[in-house]
Amino acid sequence: MSKFHVNRRTLIKSGAAIGAGLALPTIFTSSANAYMNEPKGGSVVFGFNVPQTGPYADEGADELRAYQLAVEHLNGEGDGGMIGTFSSKMLKGNGVLGKKVEFVSGDTQTKSDAARASAKSMIEKDGAIMITGGSSSGVAVAVQGLCQEAGIIFMAGLTHSNDTTGKDKKANGFRHFFNAYMSGAALAPVLAKNYGTDRRAYHLTADYTWGWTQQESIQAATEGVGWETVNNVLTPLATTDFSSYIAPVLNSGADVLILNHYGGNMVNSLTNAVQFGLRDKMVNGKQFEIVVPLYSELMAKGAGPNIKGVFGSTNWSWTLQDEGTKAFVKSFGEKYGFPPSNAAQTCYAQALLYADAAERAGTFDPCGIAESLEGFEFDGLGNGPTLYRKEDHQCFKDVLVMKGKEDPTNEYDALEIVEVTPRAQVEYAPDHPMFAGGDLGKCNSGA
Amino acid sequence: MDAIILQLLNGLDKGSAYALIALGLTLIFGTLGVVNFAHGAMFMIGAFCAVTMQKILGISTITLDPEKLDFLGKPLQIKTPIVESLFGKGLGDSIINWSVPLSILLAIPVMLVLGYIMERGLIKHFYKRPHADQILVTFGLAIVLQEIVKYFYGANPIPTAAPDMFRGSIDFGVLIGFAENAIIYPAWRLVYFLFSMAIVGAVFAFLRFTTFGMVVRAGMADRETVGLLGINIDKRFTIMFGIAAAVAGLAGVMYAPINSPNYHMGMDFLVLSFVVVVVGGMGSLPGAVLAGFLLGILESFASMNEVKSVIPGIDQIIIYLVAIIILLTRPRGLMGRKGVMEE
C-alpha cells in the first residue's frame, strides 16, 4: 500500500496547480472589473482581427487600413472622414469617452482556430475592449462565439453567411455587412430581367458555412423567378485549379454558372470558366452566362478582364455619390492612393458604430453598448438609412447589384452599379427559415 | 466519351505541372541527396517572373488628362507604355501581348542564378545532415521566399494574360474526329502540356546525349568513383541544382496564365509533388514524370460528378490513396531503384 507524503514543496506545487486550475474557467469572468477589460487608464484598446495570410489576405489588408483610418479619425487626426457625415453627432474626435483609442491587430489566417487564438490573445494579453474584423464567415462565427463567452463585443467585419446572424447569432455580436439572403433577393430580379426567367443554373460552391448559405439563398431566389437548378457541386476552400469542376458544366445542360466563391477562389474559378470558353458558348439556344453573387473590388481587380459583364452584388461601392461615401473615399484615397474596398468600408463603419454606441451609452460595458446598438437607426456612413435590428443584430440597408464594367477607364474602375436595391426588397422576418435556429441569448459583460 | 477525353486532357494538364516540379525535385534528390522543400517556391518565383516581365513591359510615361477626373476628382493620369513609345503602337502592343512567353528569357537566368546561390549559400551546408534538417531548412527558405514575394507583389492573385492568339479555347474534338463543339479546351492549357513535354524531353536529352549529362548520371550512380577519376562532380551537381530550379521556374512561368500567380502557389503544389516523387520512385526521373501524369489523370477522373456520387470526396484523397497502395505494395515506387525506401 502506497503512502501519501506531503512536504512543503509538494504542498506549494499542488497549491499552485489547484489555484491555476480553479482560475482557468474564470479567466474570462474575473470580478476585478465591472466588466471584461474595463479600461482604467487614459486609453482604450480595440482588437482588429483580420486575415493577413490565406486566400482572403488582400481583403484583410484593406480592412486593416480602414481600421487604422478609423482610429485616426476617432482620435481627432486626419480629416475626420465619415465622422462628419454620420447622423449621430456623438463622436467629437477626442477618442471615445475621453479615452484615446489604441489598437492591436492579429492574423486570423482565414482559419477559425487561428482566429480564435488571436482574438483570445488580444482579449487576455492586450486587454482589447472589443474585437472586430474577419473576412470569412467561418472565422466570424467562431470569433463571435468566443467573444460571447468572454464578455466582449464583436463587431463583425466581412461575413456574408446567413448563419452569422441566423443560427449562430449571439447577443454580443453585431453585423453591419449584408448577407447571402439579401444578395439573392437583390440579384434574382436583375438576373431575370437580363437573362430571362427560363434558365438552368449550375452552382459551384465553396464548402463552408458561407458557401452553403450563399448557395441556398441564390438557389431559392433564382428558382423564385423561374430558374431551374441543374446541380450544386461543393469545392474545398483550398482548391486553386477549378478546371476539373468546370469541365462537367459543359455537358450538364446548364446555361448559367453561378460561382459561390470569394477572394482567390473566385478569381481562379472565374478565370478557369472563361478559359474553357463558357462565356462564348450557346446552350439551349441562349448565350451562356456566369454570375458571381458576392462581389468585391479586390476580386474584380484580381480577375482582370474576365469580370466584364458578370453580375454580382455588393455591400457598398466607392462610386456611390452620397456625402458619407465621398468623405470616406477622399480620406482613404488620400492616405493610401487608391479607393477603399467594400470590406474596408464595412470595417471602418463598424469601428465608428462601436465608438458611437459607447458614447451614447456612456460606458464601455458590453451590455450597455449592445443596448445602445439594438434598434439603432443611422445614416451618413455610405449605405443610406440603416437599421441595426434588435432581434438578430443584423443591419438592414440598400443592396447594390453590380456588373463587371465593359470599358473600364482605370484599374479601379472594374465594377459599375446596375441597381441600388431598396432595403424593403431585401428584408426578411427574424424567424425566416434560412435564419432559423440558434438563440441570440443574453448579453455577457464578462463580469 | 467526350467528357472522358476532356478529363483526360485536364489530367494531362495537371500532370504537366506535377511532372515538371517532381522532375526538378528528383534531379536534386538524385544528385545531391537533398529533400528540397523550397522547390515549390521555385515554381512560384517562375510565375512571378512572368508577372515581373508584364510589369516591366507595362512601365509607362504618365500624362494628365484634365478632361477626365480620377476617383479623387483630380485630372486622370493617362499611362503610355514606354515599349509603345519606343517601337510604335503595333509592335509595342505585340511585345506586351507576348509578355508571358518572353518572360522565359528572364526566368532562365534568374532561376539558374537563384538555384546556384541557394545551393552554394545554404543547402551545401546540409548535405551531411539528416533529411529532417534538410526539410526544415528548405521549408524555412520556402516561407522566406514567399513572404518576400508577398511583400513586393501583395497577397492578391495577379492576372497574367496569355498572348491573344492562345487566350480562347479551341475545338479539340474536331481535331480528333468528334462533332463540332463536343470537346472545347483552353488553348493555353494545350500549349502548357506541349511545353512541359518539350522541357521533359530536353532534360532527358541533356542527361542522355551530352557528356555533362553522362558524367552527372555516373555521379548519381556512384559519386565517389566519379570523384576519384578527377572529375569535379560537386560543381556539376551544383549546376544540376540550378537546372532543376530552372525547370520549376519555367513550369511556373507558363502556368501563370492558367491561374493568376499568388505568393502561396508553390506550397499548393509542393506536397502533391512530393507524393508524385514517392509514387514514381525516389531518384527516378522517368518515374517522376510517369507518376506526375498518372496522378494528374487519376485526380481529374476522380473529380467527375459521376465518380464523386459513388465515392464522395474521392477527388480529395485519390492521390494519397494511390500513394498508400503503392508504398504498401512496392515501397521503392513505380520506377525506383531497389532498396530505396525498402529497408
UniProtKB/TrEMBL annotation, chain A:
Residues 44-405 form the Leucine-binding protein domain. The keyword Signal applies. Keywords: Amino-acid transport, Signal, Transport. This is Substrate-binding protein. Belongs to the leucine-binding protein family. It holds the Pfam family Peripla_BP_6. Residues 1-34 form the signal peptide. Transmembrane segments: none annotated. It comes from Hoeflea algicola.
Automatic annotation (TrEMBL), chain B:
Keywords: Amino-acid transport, Cell membrane, Membrane, Transmembrane, Transmembrane helix, Transport. InterPro entries: ABC_transp_permease, BCAA_transport_permease. It is found in: Cell membrane. It is a multi-pass membrane protein. The chain crosses the membrane at residues 16-35, 42-64, 95-114, 191-216, 236-257, 269-298, 310-328. Belongs to the binding-protein-dependent transport system permease family. LivHM subfamily. This is Branched-chain amino acid ABC transporter permease. The lineage of its organism: Bacteria, Pseudomonadati, Pseudomonadota, Alphaproteobacteria, Hyphomicrobiales.
